[in-house]
Amino acid sequence: MIPKLFVFVLAALFCNAFASDAECPQGAVLSPFDPNICYMVSSNALDYYSAADFCEQAEGHLTSVHNAFENSYLRGAASSIGADTVWIGGSNNNAKGIWKWEDSSAFDWTDWGPGQPNGTAGLCLSVSTHDGFWYGEKCAQAKPFFCKVNPTKRGLASCPNGVQ
Ligand SMILES: *[C@@H]1O[C@H](CO)[C@@H](O)[C@H](O)[C@H]1NC(C)=O
C-alpha cells in the first residue's frame, strides 16, 4: 500500500509544477494564489467605461474581486503604482442599482467602506489604497485600473484538497 503522506507530497509537487507552468499574456502578471488568473495593471487613468473597453480588448474584463487575498493583492499593486484609488470591475448602473461584476461572476464577497454602498444607482466601484475598502464613485472619473485576463498557458485548474 502506498502511504497517504507520499501521495499527498506527490500531489503537492505536481500541483506546484503545473501552477508555475502557467503563463500570462504580455503585460499581465500571474496571481500569486490562483494559476488561472492573470492581472493587468494599468497606471494610465481612464474613466470606468473606457477602462472596461480596454480590458475587453485585452480579452478580459475589469477585475472582479472574490476574497480578501485578491483584494489585498490588488490594493498592494495599486499602491505600488502610486494610486490613491483604482477602478475594479463593478457597477450598479441599472434601474434597481444592483451591484454586478463586469465578468458576470457572482457578487459573492464585498469590502465596502464606511457608509457604502450609499444607495445611489449608476456608480462604479473603486478600491482605495489607503484602507483597502470599496467605494461607489462617479464612473466618469479617470482612475488607473485592473483587468483580469486568462492565462495564455493554463496552470492546474485547482490543487487537490489541502494542497496550496
Ligand atoms: C453617493 O455617492 C455618490 C458618489 O460619490 C454621490 O454622488 C452621491 O451624492 C452619494 N449619495 C448619497 C445619498 O450620499
UniProtKB/TrEMBL annotation:
PROSITE patterns: C_TYPE_LECTIN_2. It comes from the Eukaryota. Residues 38-148 form the C-type lectin domain. Residues 1-19 form the signal peptide. InterPro entries: C-type_lectin-like (IPR001304), C-type_lectin-like/link_sf (IPR016186), CTDL_fold (IPR016187), Snaclec (IPR050976). Keywords: Disulfide bond, Signal. Gene3D superfamilies: Mannose-Binding Protein A, subunit A. It holds the Pfam family Lectin_C. CDD domains: CLECT. PANTHER family: PROTEIN CBG13490. This is C-type lectin domain-containing protein.
